[in-house]
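Q: Entry one of two.
A:
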Amino acid sequence: MDALGHTPAACRAREILDRVGGKWSLSVISHLGADTKRFTELNRGIEGISHRMLTVTLRDLERDGIVSRTVYPVMPPRVEYTLTPVGHTLFDLVSGLVTWAEGHLDDIDAARAAYDARAE
């Protein structure tokens, strides 16, 4: 335990939550939930993500054992990404979060409008 009362496990869990809870990680996990995809499919399917940010996100998720990368020795090289068994358990949680967000868009828009009206 450190001076603030945090255990090493809590600090490591926070680090992992920061990674998988990030904007791009959630999108990648969500897109890979249905099936294996190539880099270009992910890049086209995730609105607003840059080539570099997708590369960094996939590497981080691969390092954490959430995404698996397979390179096929063909010309041109073909690379596919899929969720690992651990990644699939995370997908179950992520898909619930995405469903919740999509189901509450109107509620959130109304709350934002009311807040903004009060702030003026």
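Q: Entry two of two.
A:
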Amino acid sequence: MALYIVAEECISCGDCKPVCPTDSIKEGAVVFEISKKTCTECNGDYDEPQCVKVCPIDNCILPLVA
């Protein structure tokens, strides 16, 4: 279970970074990136992923499909 940021959609606003309870979001070279190793989709902390909740762009943060 992990999320990823769609680079083509991300506006690099940074709203997602401070709300991540696992500190899995970092500023990348172009846009923000989510670590698939530590992202839990907020399971155990919140009912929904907080980064998705605060992101101003629809479908910018999506589930990572294996």
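A: Comment on entry two: The chain has a mean pLDDT of 96. The longest strand covers residues 3-5.
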